[in-house]
Amino acid sequence: MIDDIQHPLQIIPIPAFSDNYLWLIHNQHKAIVVDPGDATPVINTLRQLDLDLQTILITHHHQDHIGGVDLLLRTYPDAEVFAPKLEQYTFAHKPVSEPEQLYLGDWISSAKVIDVPGHTLGHIAYYIEHQAQQWLFCGDTLFGAGCGRLFEGTPAQMMASLQKLTALPASTQVYCTHEYTLHNINFALGLEPGNMSLVKRQQDAKVQLTSGQPTLPSTLALELETNPFLRCHMPEIQASLHTKNANLLQTFSAMRALRNSY
């Protein structure tokens, strides 16, 4: 146990499908995986690094986030699965919702569950404060320079969910589950071309992707500077959307509708 605690934690992305990231947290011995839509790359990584899968964290029910769970449980039958209380799953799991704190093991701090409806009605996020770091695993709620599509929830629900997340410390690292960042930035620049932080982020993202690196994790500080869905109060964005005389929710709704067809 002491040996487990002393090892520094690592968080690595496991690419899957065309643009998913399956996040793996480990301490050289034990591992946690978030939203394993595909079991094969997870099992390959676990075996390559000689890790034992201890926990599976699920943010919502879409197949690209849960498709690998059954095979992972057959391969690692002692693994514990946490999944949203307001959604239905066929695999064995512990249903969780806000404000539960999840014990993940002696080697890592507990995870706080945050209800974030919008993308789906039961969507949750996991927030971990470990030593001097803060980590947010937000599924398809918050993306790099964007937010999730509203498959089940309303704009008001998504906007409220994003406000919950941005109330976390600005230094929080944001582990989104899709590589949408550059596309989102290009959309955002159409609304706020005068945002120099956004221009720089576009340049940085191009360098990262060209070199084969993910654009994630982000930080909440960077999202607040560059994510248009968190900047509905900005005059330039309101002017672009013709919502200067509208409220913030109307601006948000107009932006989400525009992004759907971008």
Automatic annotation (TrEMBL):
SMART domains reported in the protein's UniProt record: Lactamase_B
Co-factor: note: Binds 2 Zn(2+) ions per subunit.
GO BP terms in the entry: methylglyoxal catabolic process to D-lactate via S-lactoyl-glutathione
Enzyme class: hydrolase
Known pathway: Secondary metabolite metabolism; methylglyoxal degradation; (R)-lactate from methylglyoxal: step 2/2
Residues in Metallo-beta-lactamase domain copies: 19-178
SUPFAM superfamilies reported in the protein's UniProt record: Metallo-hydrolase/oxidoreductase
Binding site for Zn(2+) 1: H60, H62, H119, D140
Cofactor(s) this protein cannot do without: Zn(2+)
Source organism, top-level taxon: Bacteria
Keyword set, alphabetical order: Hydrolase, Metal-binding, Zinc
Pfam entry (one): HAGH_C
Reactions accelerated catalytically: an S-(2-hydroxyacyl)glutathione + H2O = a 2-hydroxy carboxylate + glutathione + H(+)
HAMAP family, sorted: Glyoxalase_2 (MF_01374)
Assembly: Monomer.
Known role: Thiolesterase that catalyzes the hydrolysis of S-D-lactoyl-glutathione to form glutathione and D-lactic acid.
Protein name, as recorded: Hydroxyacylglutathione hydrolase
